[in-house]
Write a structure and sequence with these properties.
By secondary structure, the protein is mainly alpha-helical. It has two helices and no strands. The relative contact order is 0.02.
Length: about 170
């Protein structure tokens, strides 16, 4: 240091005094400005944290809602699938029943047609037999019957008529 000089001549003293005066004059203002700035920043961070917390709660609520909707949709889909399977089974059973009914109806129709064809064939055979018998009778009558034989045949036919009518 300096040799025994006055304390007032020491520049460190004056720097300290100037710093103290500066700090006393401007320190309160600087402190207030600094704390105000830090308080504002803390309030901003607090607001951001509250906003982040609110957004997180909203996101969690949305996630829970989406999960609930997903579960409901899965249950609806399962119910629809079950209902569709039951409907398909019911339609298949109805189709089987309809097919069986249609087959029975076709079989009955075929049986009716066969019976009608048999009846028509029997009728045709009877008509053909009657026609042949009539022609044969006509030819026999032309060639070999006399008036006496004719009268005898007519009498016999008239006597056999009541029995023939009862048989028919």
């Amino acid at each position: 240091m300096h040799e025994h000089g006055s304390l007032l001549a020491d520049p460190r003293l004056w720097v300290g005094v100037a710093f103290t005066i500066f700090f006393l004059i401007f320190g309160g203002r600087a402190w207030n400005a600094t704390t105000k700035m830090l308080d504002g920043r803390a309030a901003g961070i607090r607001n951001e944290l509250e906003e982040a917390s609110r957004l997180r709660r909203d996101a969690e609520a949305m996630l829970a809602e989406a999960t609930a909707r997903r579960e409901a949709a899965l249950q609806d889909a399962q119910a629809m699938l079950t209902q569709a399977r039951a409907e398909a089974q019911r339609v298949a059973e109805a189709a089987r029943a309809d097919a069986a009914t249609a087959a029975t109806r076709r079989e009955q129709l075929a049986m009716d047609r066969i019976a009608a064809a048999e009846k028509a064939a029997v009728t045709d055979v009877r008509l053909a037999a009657a026609d042949i018998a009539a022609r044969a009778a006509e030819q026999v009558i032309r060639t070999g019957l006399s008036a006496e034989t004719d009268a005898h045949l007519i009498d016999r036919a008239i006597q056999g008529l009541p029995a023939a009518l009862r048989a028919a």
